[in-house]
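During the reporting period the student researcher (J.K.) took over the structure-prediction task from the postdoctoral fellow and processed the backlog of single-chain submissions. One of the processed entries is reproduced below for the supervisory committee.
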Amino acid sequence: MKKYKDIKTIRKQFISITCDKCGKTITNEEILDLQEWLQISFIAGYGSIFDDGEEYQCDLCQQCTKELLGDYLIKL
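J.K. obtained the following C-alpha cells:
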C-alpha cells in the first residue's frame, strides 16, 4: 500500500510503500530498494473468478515477490 501526502490541491507526493504480504515499509528516500518492488493492479473482466469489474491492487517487496513467484519467473 502506497501512502501519499497532498501538495497544494492538484498533486500528491509519494511518502512510503508497505508490502501487502510481510508489512515491510520503505520511504521515498530508499530509492534503490523502491526500484525492486512489484505492484500488481488490474480490473477483473467479465466472468472472472475475481468478480466482474472489481479492481485489485497489491504491492510486494522483492523478498516476497521472490518467495511467491520465484519458481514461475523466467529470466530473459
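The committee noted the following: The first strand starts at residue 2 and ends at 7.
J.K. will present the remaining backlog at the next meeting.
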